């Protein structure tokens, strides 16, 4: 069983990615590069509509194979706000949540609401025992969202940094 393609989350709407979202997503990434680039290896100066369309195509394949369920986030007035997804890469019984927010909309509780809502849906899916968030130890914004959404730190893993602001220490947080 897979999650719904559209999810109401307070004043937000999470929608399965569609090609028509490519332009607004690329614009949001470009506006938010200073905050995204340190922790997201895909956030770079050349990220545009083409890169966004590639991500959307991969997201469609992942949804079809059940390996990831990615959503675009919109505010109540239809403004593109960011992205969030559920991924199976941590193994059976666990779904990992990844997320990013457009800088102009950060600090309003939107991402905490989106993460909390998506975690609740994920935990209601058959076979899902826990939901995890993995973020670099230096990523204070991601840590704050995870904590506010009820995730508890369960461990740390050393790995090679993938983005310029990373320390190489991944913090693992979970919610059951």
Describe the structure concisely for a colleague:
With 176 residues, the protein is of the alpha+beta class.
Notable characteristics:
single chain; 176 residues; alpha+beta; 5 helices
Describe this structure in words.
The chain has helices at residues 22-31, 33-36, 49-65, 110-123, 140-148; strands at residues 6-9, 12-16, 68-75, 80-87, 94-101, 130-136, 152-158, 169-175. 33% of the residues are buried. 31% of the residues lie in helices and 31% in strands. Strand 5 (94-101), helix 4 and strand 6 form a beta-alpha-beta unit. It has 5 helices and 8 strands, in the order ββαααβββαβαββ. It is of the alpha+beta class and 176 residues long.
Strand content: 25-35%
Query: What is the CA-atom radius of gyration, in angstroms?
Result: 15 Å
Largest sheet: 8 strands, mixed
How much helicity do the residues have? Answer: 25-40%
Contiguous runs where pLDDT drops below 50 for at least 5 residues: none
Category from helices, strands and their pairing:
alpha+beta
Mean pLDDT: 97
- Topology pattern, helix = H, strand = E: EEHHHEEEHEHEE
Strand order of the largest sheet: 1-2-3-4-5-6-8-7
What is the molecular shape? globular
Distance between the termini: 19 Å
Say how many strands there are: 8
């Amino acid at each position: 069983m897979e999650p719904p393609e559209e999810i109401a989350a307070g004043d937000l709407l999470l929608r399965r990615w569609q090609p028509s979202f490519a332009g607004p997503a690329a614009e949001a990434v470009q506006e938010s590069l200073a905050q995204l680039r340190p922790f997201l290896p895909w956030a770079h100066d050349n990220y545009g509509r083409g890169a966004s369309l590639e991500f959307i195509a991969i997201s469609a394949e992942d949804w079809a194979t059940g390996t990831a369920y990615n959503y675009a986030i919109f505010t109540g007035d239809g403004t593109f706000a960011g992205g969030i997804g559920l991924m199976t890469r941590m193994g059976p019984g666990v779904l990992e949540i990844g997320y990013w927010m457009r800088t102009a909309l950060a600090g309003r509780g939107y991402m905490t609401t989106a993460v909390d809502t998506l975690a609740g849906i994920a935990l209601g899916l058959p076979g899902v025992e826990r939901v995890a968030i993995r973020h670099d130890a230096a990523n204070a914004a991601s840590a704050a969202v995870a904590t506010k959404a009820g995730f508890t730190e369960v461990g740390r893993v050393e790995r090679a940094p993938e983005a310029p602001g990373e320390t190489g220490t991944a913090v693992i947080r979970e919610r059951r």
